[in-house]
Amino acid sequence: MSVFRKLLGVFLAALLLGGALKVGGDLKAGPEIQGALKPEAVHREAAEEIVDRLDLHYRRLKFDDDLSARVLEQYLKDLDPNRLYFTRQDIDDFQVYRDQLDDQLGDGELEAGYTIFNRFQTRLEARLTEILADIEAGFDDWSFDGEEDVLVDRGEADWAADEAALDAIWRRQLKNAVLSMRLNGTEDEAIQERLTNRYESQLNRVRQNTAEDVFQTYMNALAQSFDPHTNYFTPHNSENFDISMSRSLEGIGAVLQYEDGYTKVVRLVPGGPAAKHGQLKPADRIVAVAQGDDDMVNVIGMRLDEVVDMIRGPKDSEVRLEVIPAGSASEHDTRTIAITRNKVVLEEQAAKKEVIEFDHGGDTVKLGVIEIPAFYMDFNAFHRGDPNYTSTTRDVAELLVELRKENVDGLVIDLRNNGGGSLLEVNKLVSLFINRGPTVQVREAGGRVSVENDQYPGMLYAGPMAVLVNRYSASASEIFAGAMQDYGRALIVGDQTYGKGTVQTLLDLNHGKLKMTNAKFYRVSGSSNQNLGIVPDVNMPSLIDKEEVGESSLPNAMPWDEIKPADYQRYQDLVPLLPALRERHDERIQGDPEFVYVEKLRGLLRRANERHELSLNAERRQAWQHDFDDQRLAIENTLRKHRGEEPIDKMEDLRKLEEQRALDPEANEEPMDEDPYLRETGHILADMVGLLREQRVAGNKDS
C-alpha cells in the first residue's frame, strides 16, 4: 500500500472516531464536552493567548504534567472549596485530566474545564433543591441533644464517598446553621426565612451561569496556579485592575478578592468610607449585599466583578453588607453593616504630624510622629508638569521641617495599615532619610536586576528614628521599612508586615485582560520582601491573625528568596542593641494593662479559632459560649478598670457598645498621645538613644 493511501486511511479513521487532528494548521474536532455549557470560538483563541503570555510569568513554570495537576487541583478547589457537592466518584472521574490540561490548553481546547463545570452545575442545582426542601419541612423534629459534631472547615476533609454520605454532611451543616442562629436569639421562623433566601438566591445565580462564567473561572484557576496576584479579567471586568474601588469610582473604599466561594476583604483604602466607618475589617467575608432598605441579595459563589458592581453606587447612597467577621467559627455568625458610599478624599490620605511628650526614666521625651496612611501621588498633575502636584514626599518634607523647628528628640514614621501606593513616591521618601544610595532592587522575570537610586544628596532628617508597622503594612510600606532597616537608619517596631513583594503588569488580550506577575522587589541587602515581609527589630503584640491576613496565607504564593546585595553603606549597626531593647520592651509591656489586654484577648480568640469541630449538642454549645463570653468580659473589664470606666455586665451590652463605637469611629478615635503602640515605640526609641550614647562614651574611653 502506498504511503499516500496509508495516510488517507489514518485521516478517515480519525474523522470517524471524532478525534482531533491538526491539518495545515487548522484545529479539527476536539474531545466532546459533556453538559450544556460550551465554549465559543473566542474563548478557545483567548485560552491559547493566555497560555502564550503565561510563558513569560516570573516563575517560568513549564506547561507540563505537574502544572496540569496543579491547575486541576486549583479548579476543583475554586468550584467546591468545602467539598460539599462533588463525591469521591466525581473526583476519580476527573483524574483522567490530571496530565491532560497542559496539552488541551496549549491547543486552545477547553473540554476539561467545561465538562467538569457542567458536572458541578448539575450537582449544585440538585443539592440546593434538596436543601430548600429540607428547610421548607421545618426543624420541629430535629434533635440537638446527641453526640454529633460538625467540621468547622471542610477544605482538607475527605471527599464524600457517595450521595448518601453527602446527605449526612449536609444534614449536619444545616443543623449547625439552625443551632448557631438559635443561640444568637433568632426565632425558627426567621431562621427558615433567612436560610431559604440564602439558598434560593444561590440557586437562581447558578441557573444564570454562562459560557463566559465558565471560561473566567477556568482561566483564573490556570492563572492562580502561578501565583495569587495573576488573574484573568473578562471584557466586562477588565477595567477593574486589582478589583479596587479606590480610584475615580464611587464606592466604599475596599479592595476585595474571591476566595473559596466568598468575597473577602483584603484591605481598606485609607480615607475611604469603609475605613472611616470602622466596622468592616480585612479578612471579613461578604455574604450578602443590599441597596439601602432593599432586601439582602446573597452573593456566596457570585463572581467578584458582580459583587463589586453591587457594592459600588452613587455618592451619598447607602449599601448594606452582611459579613462573616474574620475568625468566626461559623458562616452563620454574621452581622450587618451599613456604609454610605463616597469618593476617597485624597486629603484624608495625606500624611499628618503630631508632637507627643512622655516621661522616660524621669526624663521628658519630645517625640515627633508622622502618620502616612498611603503612598499617594497626583499622577495627572505630575504628567501635566504642575510643580505643585500632590505628593507624599512633598507633604512629609514640609512636616519634617516643622518638626525640626519644634526640636523633637526623635521621630516615628507610622505606617500601620498603609497598603502601599506609588513606587516613585516611596523611593523619594527614602531619599529624605539617607544621603545617597540605592533604595530598592527590582528583578525581572528574565533575571535582569535594576536598582532604584536616591538621586538627591543630603538628608532632610538625620536624627533618631523608628518605623511603626503592622500586618496591614504592605508593598511600598515594606520597601520603605526595609530600606530604613538595611541602612540602619531606623528601628522597625510592631508586627511582621504583609509580605507583598511582587510586581504585576496588565496585558491586553483579544478577549479581556491578564494581570500577570512579572517582577519582584528586593531590599538593598538582597532580601526579598515577598512572603516573609519585614520582620520587626522589636515585636509588638497584635490581634491580627497571620493565618488569615498576609501573603503567606494565600494559595500558591511565591516564596521568599534573596539576590546579591546592592552597593550601599550602613549608617549604623543597630543589631547589637536589639537584645537589650527587646528585654526592656518586654519588661514594660508585661505590666502595661493595654498590652496585657491584647495578649489575653489574642489568646482567647486563638483558642476559639483552633477548634476543628463544633458540637451539635445545644447544651454543650451553649455552655461553651457562656464560658467564652465570661472570659471575654473579664478581659474587657480588667482594661476598663485600669481606664477608670464602669464594668460591663453582659456580652449584649459589650456588643452594643462596640456597635456604637463603630457607628462613629472618629468620635472614638484614640489621640496619638494615648496610643499605647506609639507611646511604647517612643520608649523603645529613647532606649536606643541612651544605648547609643553609652556606646559612644565607652568607645571614647577605650580610645
Automatic annotation (TrEMBL):
SUPFAM superfamilies xref list: ClpP/crotonase (SSF52096), PDZ domain-like (SSF50156)
Protein name per the record: Tail-specific protease prc
InterPro entries: ClpP/crotonase-like_dom_sf (IPR029045), PDZ (IPR001478), PDZ_sf (IPR036034), Peptidase_S41A (IPR004447), Tail-specific_protease (IPR005151), Tail_Prtase_C (IPR020992), TSP_N (IPR040573)
Protease as UniProt keyword: yes
Any single Pfam family the record assigns to this protein: Peptidase_S41
PANTHER family on file: CARBOXYL-TERMINAL-PROCESSING PEPTIDASE 3, CHLOROPLASTIC, TAIL-SPECIFIC PROTEASE
Family the entry assigns: Belongs to the peptidase S41A family.
GO biological process, one term: proteolysis
Gene Ontology molecular-function annotations: peptidase activity
Domain PDZ: 242-312
UniProt keyword annotations, A-Z: Hydrolase, Protease, Serine protease
Coiled-coil segments: none
